[in-house]
Specification:
The chain folds into 2 domains: 87 residues, Ubiquitin-like (UB roll); 86 residues, NADH-ubiquinone oxidoreductase 51kDa subunit, iron-sulphur binding domain (de novo design (two linked rop proteins), Up-down Bundle). 45% of the residues lie in helices and 13% in strands. The protein has a 5-stranded mixed sheet, sandwiched between helices. A two-stranded antiparallel ribbon has the order 3-6. Helix 6 packs antiparallel against helix 7 and helix 7 packs antiparallel against helix 8. The N and C termini lie far apart (60 Å).
């Protein structure tokens, strides 16, 4: 066999896939919808959702909810309804943030997420992506620094090492977030994180580099104050120039 590394495309699997033969690749959710569509027709399936976002989708809701699990609902269902189906935020705590489409999708604060509907267009307009539909709910007890530290370690560990921006960049992201978490952050670390993320995103063969960079940029955008609070003597750039 060959190394478990991505290759440049085209050719795509539909024309050159397994054993060099045309290969159809879809996830189980897609295949599961086919029998219903055959029985009832495509237009009926589209009517289950909203314009440009037809059908249903399975959301895997995890994190700080009372009833984590998989929920199939029509596309366009308000996030508030999905949260209600999952039993609401655990122990009556307040919603702080949501990662709406798996760990690679940018985090959204509660104030934004509660205005969203669960479909591709709404989540994209809010600044994130629906992705796999793996919804991670975070309550007000969660540290965004610790959360990003865990995510960054995961992507550093999962990098195959083929592309330099990802191989080197994911390590830098984790090390910088880790030292901020441990109270050893530096004045320049916030800009450094954004710079490293910028130099990873869009510069790798597969999407893992983007997946590592996007959570960093979103966490800093929406929860920068939590990172700054852990950096000894941190002075905001505007104040430093005054």
């Amino acid at each position: 066999g060959k190394k478990g590394q991505p290759r440049f495309k085209p050719p795509f699997p539909a024309s050159f896939g397994l054993y060099g033969k045309p290969t159809t690749i879809n996830n189980t959710e897609t295949f599961a919808a086919v029998p219903w569509i055959i029985r009832n027709g495509g237009p009926a399936y589209l009517e289950c959702g909203k314009p440009n976002n037809g059908g249903t989708k399975i959301y895997s809701v995890s994190g700080d909810v009372e009833l984590p699990g998989n929920y199939e609902v029509p596309m366009g269902t308000p996030f508030s309804k999905l949260l209600e189906l999952a039993g609401g935020v655990r122990k009556g705590r307040q919603l702080k943030a949501v990662i709406p489409g798996g760990s690679s999708s940018p985090v959204l604060p509660a104030s934004i997420m509660m205005e969203c509907t669960m479909d591709y267009d709404s989540i994209a307009k809010a600044g994130s992506m629906l992705g796999s539909g793996a919804v991670i709910v975070m309550d007000d007890s969660r540290s965004m620094v610790e959360s990003l530290r865990r995510l960054s370690y995961f992507y550093m560990h999962e990098s195959c090492g083929q592309c330099t921006p990802c191989r080197e960049g994911t390590g830098w992201l984790w090390r910088v977030v880790d030292r901020i978490h441990n109270g050893q952050g530096r004045q320049s670390d916030m800009d450094l994180l954004n710079s490293v993320a910028d130099n990873i995103q869009g510069r790798t063969i597969c999407a893992l580099g983007d997946a590592a960079a996007m959570p960093v940029r979103a966490m800093i955008k929406h929860f920068r104050h939590e990172f700054e609070a852990l950096i000894p003597g941190y002075v905001a750039p505007a104040a430093a120039k005054a």
